């Protein structure tokens, strides 16, 4: 594991902007509105062969007694204690801290209290005076911060002023014995299977991650839209690493009027394309809504490896459970390869099935079938059930190949692919899945017209 440094500070000092600069990616949502970040987020900083982890945390406002203050921004009202708990947990994992302040605002009481809080940890602390947009402003904006007594650097996350110096100062705070571990690791080995949670607001995505990891890492609330950023959480479960990506709830675009929510939704959809497997979480109390169907269709069309989790099943009456299962089976029938699990984050019902099934789906996505086996299977399948005659001509198959994996893509060559009926294509898909044991992964079937069987690649004769 790489050494970690946490960015801490009051709301709206620019921690998320600095985080994005350091990891060279726009993962954290940034906005002029204070209090957008709530959950902690981790990313890798890689420079000149060195690597460490940077943690972005929610804005903290402390009072004179070093407890959460109620004078913070409206966006954080009701979440102050959860955010402070997340910051405290992050600090426990860190080798050093970076206290971020706003140079334009000057030294505020909240900054002084956070400085005292950081000093009590006993960790090395770097003071980053942010929003200093040039060398001509450095002396003016940093003058009063000297009283805090920390090593200090004036920077601008937005404009990039002195970011290289900032990175070097962060690197210098890390323990020297960590140097041997800084060789860039294989990302899959370090992060494990990457699993994204997707669904409508308040479906229980964060609760499921907490239940799976047996932690309180994600902030959970009855208030819909609590999660804003797409947050990565890496945990070891049963001696295997998994990275869970918690995403913001997705509502219909016509209902989104807030710019922060629009960024959150875009980030959520993007996260599903970068994950190995996506878990579509549906609120079991509300049934399959039109928005759930849109998300299901989106994942299916994009050939995303995913499964459906019907959450809050513990709230369904036991007598109604069988009928409820039938209803979901009917609603999701058009996407038959996708597994559906009834779970409860509260009672842990069904949770043991999730990770093994996610592993299976990912393994199926990487399957590679030899061409000879493909064509033997094709001959058997077509012999058993020939394609129907269309306009007095029966489509004739010559051969098939596998073009790629992730997802498995199979190309069929025939005399006229436009004559193939939809129901016969579904028959071929079922046959491919059954023959090659691809039960739940998405697959692509492509059809090409070829008027000569000689187009099949000939085997090369071995030289004697």
Automatic annotation (TrEMBL):
Domain of life: Bacteria
Positions of GTP 1 binding: 9-16, 56-60, 130-133
Family label: Belongs to the TRAFAC class TrmE-Era-EngA-EngB-Septin-like GTPase superfamily. EngA (Der) GTPase family.
CDD domains: EngA1 (cd01894), EngA2 (cd01895)
Alphabetically ordered keywords of this record: GTP-binding, Nucleotide-binding, Repeat, Ribosome biogenesis
Functional description taken from the UniProt entry: GTPase that plays an essential role in the late steps of ribosome biogenesis.
Protein name: GTPase Der
Domain EngA-type G, chain residue ranges per copy: 193-366
Name of a matching Pfam family: MMR_HSR1
PANTHER family in the record: GTPASE DER
Biological processes annotated in GO: ribosome biogenesis
Subunit structure of this chain's protein: Associates with the 50S ribosomal subunit.
Record GO terms (molecular function): GTP binding; ribosome binding
Name of the coding gene: der
Keyword field contains Repeat: yes
InterPro entries associated with the record: G_ENGA, GTP-bd, GTPase_Der, KH_dom-like, KH_dom-like_a/b, P-loop_NTPase, Small_GTP-bd
PROSITE patterns: G_ENGA
HAMAP family: GTPase_Der (MF_00195)
Chain sites annotated for binding GTP 2: 199-206, 246-250, 311-314
């Amino acid at each position: 594991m790489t050494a970690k440094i946490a960015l801490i500070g009051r709301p709206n000092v620019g921690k998320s902007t600095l985080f994005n600069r350091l990891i060279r990616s726009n993962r954290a949502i940034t906005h002029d509105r204070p209090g957008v970040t709530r959950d902690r987020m981790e990313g890798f900083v890689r420079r000149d062969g060195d690597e460490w982890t940077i943690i972005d945390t929610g804005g903290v406002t402390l009072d004179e007694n070093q407890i959460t203050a109620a004078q913070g921004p409206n966006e954080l009202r009701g979440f102050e204690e959860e955010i402070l708990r997340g910051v405290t947990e992050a600090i426990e994992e860190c080798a050093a801290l970076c206290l971020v302040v706003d140079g334009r605002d000057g030294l505020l009481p909240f900054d002084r209290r956070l400085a005292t809080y950081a000093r009590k940890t006993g960790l090395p602390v770097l003071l980053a005076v942010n929003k200093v947009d040039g060398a001509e402003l450095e002396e003016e904006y940093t003058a009063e911060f000297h009283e805090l007594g920390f090593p200090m650097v004036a920077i601008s996350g937005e404009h990039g002023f002195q970011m290289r110096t900032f990175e070097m100062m962060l690197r210098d705070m890390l323990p020297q014995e960590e140097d041997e571990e800084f060789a860039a690791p294989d990302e899959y080995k370090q992060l494990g299977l990457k699993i994204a949670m997707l669904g409508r607001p308040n479906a229980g995505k964060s609760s499921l991650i907490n239940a799976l990891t047996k932690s309180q890492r994600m902030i959970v609330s009855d208030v819909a839209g609590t999660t804003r950023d797409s947050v990565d959480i890496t945990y070891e479960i049963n001696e295997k690493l998994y990275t869970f990506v918690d995403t913001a709830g997705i509502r219909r675009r016509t209902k989104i009027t807030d710019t922060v929510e629009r960024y959150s939704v875009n980030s959520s959809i993007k996260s599903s394309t970068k994950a190995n497997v996506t878990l579509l979480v549906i609120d079991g109390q509300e049934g399959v809504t039109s928005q759930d169907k849109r998300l299901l269709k989106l994942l299916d069309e994009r050939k995303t490896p995913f499964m459906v989790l019907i959450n809050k099943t513990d709230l369904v009456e036991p007598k109604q459970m069988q009928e409820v299962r039938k209803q979901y089976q009917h609603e999701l029938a058009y996407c038959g390869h996708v597994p559906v699990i009834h779970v409860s984050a509260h009672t842990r019902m069904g949770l043991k099935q999730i990770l093994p099934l996610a592993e299976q789906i990912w393994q199926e996505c990487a399957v590679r079938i030899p061409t000879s086996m493909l064509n033997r299977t094709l001959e058997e399948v077509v012999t058993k059930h020939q394609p129907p005659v269309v306009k007095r001509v029966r489509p004739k198959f010559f051969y098939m190949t596998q073009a790629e994996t992730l997802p498995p893509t199979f190309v069929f060559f025939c005399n006229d692919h436009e004559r193939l009926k939809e129901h016969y294509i579904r028959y071929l898909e079922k046959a491919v899945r059954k023959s090659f044991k691809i039960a739940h992964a998405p697959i692509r079937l492509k059809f090409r017209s070829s008027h000569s069987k000689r187009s099949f690649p000939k085997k090369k004769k071995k030289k004697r």
